[in-house]
Amino acid sequence: MKYYVGIDIGASTTKALILDGERQVLGSGVVFSGADFSRAADEAFKRACEPVAEDVRSSCFITTTGYGRKNIAYADQNMTEISCHALGTYHHFPHPHTVVDIGGQDSKVITVEASGNRTHFRMNRKCAAGTGAFLEEMANRLQVELDDLNELALQAEQDIEINSYCTVFAASEILTRIREGVSVPDIVRGVFNSVIRRVIEMDPLEGSIVLCGGVVAYFPVLAKMFETRLGREIFVPPLPQLTGALGAALYSWKAEGDKNA
Fold first, then answer.
1. Contact, 241 vs 13, CB < 8 A?
2. Considering 15, 146, 182, 238, which has the largest number of Cβ atoms within 10 A of its Cβ?
3. Residue 54 lies in domain
């Protein structure tokens, strides 16, 4: 049996996903990337292989993507994360759409046409604004667990704005809100609103919107808040954190098909 593997080596986390010949997901794994991308890729791949009853390495095609895609010597090919996110979302939503990928260190807006090809993209790499790193810093400032942010946002009674994108200035603004007596749940919702505003200002979000990335996976309240802000339905794929790895695995599947054609 042939296996098709995608490994997405991001700055924050590394994701691996395995498909069979019918493009069905057999296993996946997510680990922190740390300072050794090769080790992280090995560990994510190992975890993805756990549900498979045989040695995947002996009969697989591997495509890497993401920040560390060129650090994995045993990969058969590598593809850009933009292309992999476009293919990964198109697999679930085969129609024109705009991808919004919110990751730990950057955010991306990608336009996908009817054929599945990406036609345009924007990335935020200037600072932590609109990323998981921003949320982590704000959680630290509020002295709450990162895992509690989603539930806290759901408890909010009002929508407030955290106007500063800069992590340092946003922390000062939060201090002001605390002094004004604003509740922690309301502040957390304001922090999520800041992420949404930053993404919207990156690029016009036209047509169908597909949200993916680790931040969306961990904080599903964001999808509902995007819907409220934009006034239309937002689509979230299964395993949103693994969209890039899925796209890479699909490129593996396509490469094998092209080779055998």
1. yes
2. 15
3. 1-93+239-261
